[in-house]
Amino acid sequence: MAQFKTALVLGATGLVGKALIRQLQNDPRYKQVTCLVRRPMPLSLVAHEQKKVNWLVINFDALQEYEGYFKVDHVYCCLGTTIQKAGSQEAFRKVDFEYVHVAAQLARAQRCKSFVWISSIGANAKSSNFYLRVKGELENAIMGMSQLKNASAVRPSLLLGERHENRPLEDIAQTIAPVLGMLLMGPLKKYRPVSAIEVAHKMIKLQVFDDD
Questions:
Q1: pLDDT category of residue 46 using cuts at 50, 70 and 90
Q2: What are phi and psi of 160, to 5 degrees?
Q3: Which of 80, 139, 140, 77 is nearest to 106 (CA)?
């Protein structure tokens, strides 16, 4: 008989994170989902029907202190920011590389069955683009970790969905998404803007659900 799973989500308040929580809440395979967040959640986000979703406010600069919460079947890492929002390349790297890398290390220490995080299309440790270089360096760092079971990166292009912050490039993509969908064919299909719902669904599909 299949066993119910437990999950830990980092970055649950972002575009993909919110879509992911809704899907996990409705996924009968999960019995408990814990979300690590930076600040208390507004009631509009924490729905009353989310009986199996627990929210915990933590200090991400001291993520190691919360290692016990990583003792779950699956870890989903949706952490991410922009250089503009972070304020500097150093602050961006702290969120998009350091926090995610530490999360992967904690998942390994607690022997999670699988770890899935959000990277980016074009991620390359040798890229001249700082954003893509950081994403590529993170992929290399996590995939090179020994004894980390079933680590997988999702590489979306521009994300579609309703945001509560200003991201001009993604706002433009939302507007022209139907046209891009027709123009980006064949090998270019991977560059099509993708909905947060689709990315969240892909993350769930990458997790390991067998009972070995």
A1: low
A2: -105, 140
A3: 77
- Angle at which helices 130-143 and 100-109 cross, to 10°: 10
Catalytic residues: 131, 135
154 with 119: CB under 8 angstroms?
yes
Is residue 161 pLDDT above 70, yes or no? no
Asked if residue 183 belongs to a domain, the reply is: no
Q: How far is CA 182 from CA 121, 157, 159, 161, 169, in A?
A: 19, 15, 17, 19, 19
Number of domains in the chain: 1
CATH number of the domain enclosing 114: 3.40.50.720
- Tokens 């996924």 found at: 27
Residue 94 inside a domain? The answer is: yes
Q: Report the distance separating Cα 205 and Cα 115, nearest Å.
A: 12
Domain residues for the domain of 83 are 5-163+195-206
pTM: 0.85
Q: Per the domain annotation, does 171 fall within a domain?
A: no
Cα distances (angstroms) measured from residue 145 to each of 68, 89, 97? 20, 25, 14
Mean pLDDT lowest for which of 58-62, 83-87, 160-164, 201-205?
160-164
Residue 22 within any structural domain of the chain: yes
Q: Region 109-113: what's the mean pLDDT?
A: 96
